[in-house]
Design goal:
The chain contains six helices and seven strands; from the N terminus they run ββαααβββαβαβα. It is an alpha/beta fold.
Amino acid sequence: MSLLIHPIAPVFDVHSRVLILGSFPSAKSREMGFYYGHPQNRFWKVLALLYDAPVPQTVEERRAFLLHHGIALWDVIARCEITGSSDASIKNAEVNDLREILEHAPIRAVFVNGRKAEALYRRHIAPKLQAEAVCLPSTSPANAAWSLERLADAWRIVRLRAETI
């Protein structure tokens, strides 16, 4: 197990109103150079359902989708030791400095995708920022107990918070 540095830049602009944080990019995401690249991860399908839109396929479509809907996207972890894509294997995690986003975007709500991201956020980021994050059920294929429809129901809060003034 070697130390890996997060290879993907955050996605946000001056119109981003919600921030979604994962834990660390999967091996497939690291390979493709963008978030939620594993075809069995349901992240993009869930967002498409929330906005009644086609599932974005390319990196450019995914980035445009996020920005169009006021969603910023990054991960809690800046570097860590990890085996493959397993959150359970993460060791020696160092977290990202979210000020890079929060100082440039009017973020109204922070969401974390799954329990590992939540645990690291609560331990390392929330005390500094004094900003709580809402934990959403993981879109990972490892979270097979949650159907796509059930995930979309739980994730509807993202759209509600992004659209609320």
